[in-house]
Amino acid sequence: MEENDIYHERQRLQFCLMHALNNLLQEDSFSRNELDTIGNKLAAIDPDKERWSPFSLVLKPHHNALTGNYDANVLISALESRNKRVIWHDHRNHTSSINLIAETLVGILINIPVRRFGGLWKSRHWVAIRRIGDVWYNLDSDLAAPKAFSNADEQRGRSSSGEADGRKAVGGGECLSMEC
């Protein structure tokens, strides 16, 4: 498959989870409205609801109402709404616990800590890595275009180290895989 035939959304605000999900599914599957709704439903059923404050209008338990910045609970609920199986991988094992040649494995989502603006801003970023045919691609929404990995060892090494597009993340990250 040609790289320009691969569906790839680019980063906008802190909607990296929406972009990562759509890039992973290879279509415009999730909208901001749908992910906000999922986050709000998760907050409504949360047994540890916090007291309301003026900040509650913007800083929701599972996302930021203005910029996105969704958490793993939204990711899991979103994929399960599409009948996808999500497996959480312990970050201490990196990606060594993932069978990259399993036929049911569609892709990997990694939540890595990153520094932006010369290290002044620390945040987290969702990155999608997907197998298309026999090739694994880095579908990071910060990239201008999808990047093919030369082999599974390179893909495993990049996702284990929390590295995306050659930039080193600050520490390790959460890792989830999606299966059909």
Salient structural properties:
single chain, 180 residues, alpha+beta, Cathepsin B, Chain A, six-stranded antiparallel beta sheet, two-stranded antiparallel sheet, 8 strands
What does this entry look like structurally?
There is one protein chain. By secondary structure, the protein is α+β, with helices and mostly antiparallel strands. It has one domain (9-179): Cathepsin B, Chain A (Alpha-Beta Complex). It has helices spanning 16-25, 32-44, 72-80, 152-161; strands at 85-89, 105-116, 121-132, 135-138, 147-148, 163-164, 167-168, 174-179. The strands form 2 sheets. Strands 1-8-2-3-4-5 form a 6-stranded antiparallel β-sheet, sandwiched between helices. A two-stranded antiparallel sheet has the order 6-7. β4 and β5 form a beta hairpin. α2 (32-44) packs across α3 (72-80). The longest helix is centred in the N-terminal third of the chain and has 13 residues, at 32-44. Mean pLDDT is 74; it is low at 158-172.
Q: How would you summarize what this structure contains?
A:
With 180 residues, this protein is of the alpha+beta class.
- Quaternary arrangement of the chains shown? single chain
Shape: globular
Poorly predicted ranges: 158-172
Tell me about the biggest sheet?
A: 6 strands, antiparallel
Average pLDDT for all residues: 74
Radius of gyration: 16 Å
Written as H for each helix and E for each strand, in order along the chain, the element string is: HHHEEEEEHEEE
Quick one: CATH class?
Alpha Beta
Structural class: alpha+beta
What portion of residues is helical?
Answer: 10-25%
Architecture (CATH level 2) name: Alpha-Beta Complex
Strands of the widest sheet, in order across it, are 1-8-2-3-4-5
